Structure formats: C-alpha cells, structure tokens
Amino acid sequence: MTPPVEPDTQRIPVRYWIWLLGAAVSLLGDYTMTFAVGWSASQYGGRVAGLVLLLMVAPRAVLLLIGGAIGDRFGAPRVLLASCVAMFVLTAALVPASLEFGEPVWLLIVTSFGLGVIEAFFLPSYRAMPRLLVPTSVVPRALASLQVLGVLFAVCGTAIGGLVVGWAGLKAASGLNAITFLIMIATLLVIRGTTQQHGATGTKIMRSIGDGLKVAFGNPLTRTLLIVMLIAYGLLQPMDGLILPLLARDHGWSASTAALLLSCRALGVGLIALRIMAKGAFPRPGLVAPFGLIIAGLGLFGLSELEALPLAIGSAMVSGIGVGLFTGHLLPLLMNSVEKEYQSRLQSVVVLCQSSAVVIMNPLLGTFADLNAIGITGVCLGVGIASALLGVIALNRPTFRNATV
C-alpha cells in the first residue's frame, strides 16, 4: 500500500460532519421502520412474519452487486440521493395507505419488498461516502464516528421505534421515516459538489460488476481482508440476535438482563470507536485487527464458563472491545485497499458477505444450541475458540499482518 501523505492528526472536513448528521437522523427512521414492519407482521403469526422479513432481505441480497455498480457508474452521492428520494416516496405513501387499509398482509409484503429493493442501492453508496468526504489518512476516524453512531442507535434506536409504533402503529413509523429521509435529502443537497470525483458513466453495468469483483478478489490484500471478514462476521454477528439471548435464557435470566448484556457488548464496541474517533487508529492496523478477534474470543470464553452475572457482563464488554478493535481497524484497511472509483462496488461485496455469513451461521449455530451434547454454552465456547484461532491465522498471514492504511 502507498503510505499516507497526510498526517493522522488532520481534521475531518466539516462536510463529513454535515453528512453524518443527516445519516444519524435517517438511521433513526430506518430502525423505527424495520421494527414497525416486523411488529405489524407478528400479529399474523411467525410464518407470515418470517415471510415478510425475508422479502426485505432477499431483494437486497440479489440486487446489491447491481446497486454497487450503479453507485460507481453514476457516483455514490447521486445514487444515494435518488435512493433517499425513493425511500421518502415509499414511506410517505404508506401513511395514507395504512390509514385507508390498516395493516393487511399484502401491504406489509409490498412495503417490505420495496424497502429491500431501495436498500440494495442505498447501502453501497451510503457506506462509500466516508471515503469520498475525507482524506485517506483520517478514514479510520471517520468510520469510527459512524460506528459510534451505529452503537448509539443499537442501544436506543429500537426502543424509540417501539414507542412510536406503540403510539400510532405503522402509519406513525412511516411518517417518521419519511421525515428523516427528507432531512437526509436536504443534507445531501447542502454538501452537493463537495465530494471527491467519483463515477464513470461510460461503463456497462454487467461489465462494471465484473470489474468490481475482479478488483475485490484479485487484489491479494482486499481478498484476504474479505475472507477474514466473512468468517469473523459469521462467528461474531450472531451474538446479538442469537447467542446472548439464548445464553440468558439458559441461565434463567430475564429479558432485561439479556438486554443489559447486549448493551454492554455494544458499549465495548463504542469505547474503541470513540478512542479511534478522538485519536485515530492504533499503529499497525493489520496487527491490531487479529488481536481484536483473539480478545473477542476470550470474552466469549468467559461468557461460556462464568455464570455469575457481574462476570458475564464483564465478559460481554470484553467481547465488544475485541469486536471494536477488529472492525475499527479492518474496515478502513478494506476501504483504502481499492481506488475511489470502486468504492460502491466494494461496499456491495462487503454487505453481501456480511449478510451471507449471518444467513448461514444463524440457523447452524441455532441447531447446535438445541443439541443436548452441545447446548448454547458449547456454542459460545466453540465460537470463542474459532474466533481466537482465526485471529492467530490472520496474524500469521504477512499480507494481513503488514497491511497499513
């Protein structure tokens, strides 16, 4: 990699903070809308709810590579603006529709499918924006600020969504989401023209997808980072939705205690993100990221072996610190491993890898957790050992170990 030409102490441009403010508001709307659709579908039973949520994930997964190619062809800011306009139109139209028809299954299916399609174009361009708004050397700090934002809404965003939905149902969530994306549209218009040059309109879509995959998996560093990320996300991402809730039930803890464990894990991630945002990434990110996996593995080992609640809370925070060290150093390496004109396509591959890992590992780990010979503590122990081993393997890969931003 070419060494950075700017010092890490360089300030993050004001345009990035303006964009981040709009992103924060839209994230609130996104969490609220996702909760509202799932909650409204749950009244029809688990099978219908599962179908509705699947129709949100499936089109996103199918169209992600196309969304990334279009983002790089026309420029991430333009595609992001168009996606926000589409999201505003969809959710604004849902307000009168839900007032007229209520919350029938067909309306939930149409809404879920529409959200999935829009997100396939929104997410790659959204995640490419930091690289286009800040100098290369401060990308880790910019991504850390975005991660802090994610942690904040992971802790309180769904709760706000629950209050809104409890107050007036799907129509209230739709109205709030429309307002948040209207603010995001205004934000994008304010910073229009301030991003670095991006987009090449002369490339055909299928060829653009092929070029993006070639860059992602043809570059030895990018390929190595993607493989490690794919395995790590498959191991660690199920912690929130699967491992920690099941572990809490196994110990006879309440739902509020399970939520406390999740919050402490998120707090661990947030502490590292705050440190990176304030002072920059640690030196030798290719060395720090694998140690993050080892630390996350130690936290999971503690969760599997320690039954006292205070020790479990400490172990959850340790696992979060490990996850924060890993993602906070791997994602900037990944983003800076390719040129700016491939950013949206790279992010589409990243999101696809992350989604695929969770889709595969959630049912697999859930099946193991139901086996008497293994149980959830065995799953937790196995994931911890696998995470630590992955960190050791990554440390022994010179391509990974020696990578710098």
UniProtKB/TrEMBL annotation:
<feature type="transmembrane region" description="Helical">
    <location>
        <begin position="253"/>
        <end position="274"/>
    </location>
</feature>
<feature type="transmembrane region" description="Helical">
    <location>
        <begin position="371"/>
        <end position="395"/>
    </location>
</feature>
<keyword id="KW-0472">Membrane</keyword>
<feature type="transmembrane region" description="Helical">
    <location>
        <begin position="144"/>
        <end position="168"/>
    </location>
</feature>
<protein>
    <submittedName>
        <fullName>MFS transporter</fullName>
    </submittedName>
</protein>
<feature type="transmembrane region" description="Helical">
    <location>
        <begin position="286"/>
        <end position="303"/>
    </location>
</feature>
<dbReference type="Pfam" id="PF07690">
    <property type="entry name" value="MFS_1"/>
</dbReference>
<feature type="transmembrane region" description="Helical">
    <location>
        <begin position="105"/>
        <end position="123"/>
    </location>
</feature>
<feature type="transmembrane region" description="Helical">
    <location>
        <begin position="174"/>
        <end position="191"/>
    </location>
</feature>
<feature type="transmembrane region" description="Helical">
    <location>
        <begin position="79"/>
        <end position="99"/>
    </location>
</feature>
<feature type="transmembrane region" description="Helical">
    <location>
        <begin position="212"/>
        <end position="233"/>
    </location>
</feature>
<keyword id="KW-1133">Transmembrane helix</keyword>
<feature type="transmembrane region" description="Helical">
    <location>
        <begin position="48"/>
        <end position="67"/>
    </location>
</feature>
<feature type="transmembrane region" description="Helical">
    <location>
        <begin position="309"/>
        <end position="334"/>
    </location>
</feature>
<dbReference type="InterPro" id="IPR011701">
    <property type="entry name" value="MFS"/>
</dbReference>
<keyword id="KW-1003">Cell membrane</keyword>
<dbReference type="InterPro" id="IPR036259">
    <property type="entry name" value="MFS_trans_sf"/>
</dbReference>
<feature type="transmembrane region" description="Helical">
    <location>
        <begin position="16"/>
        <end position="42"/>
    </location>
</feature>
<feature type="transmembrane region" description="Helical">
    <location>
        <begin position="346"/>
        <end position="365"/>
    </location>
</feature>
<keyword id="KW-0812">Transmembrane</keyword>
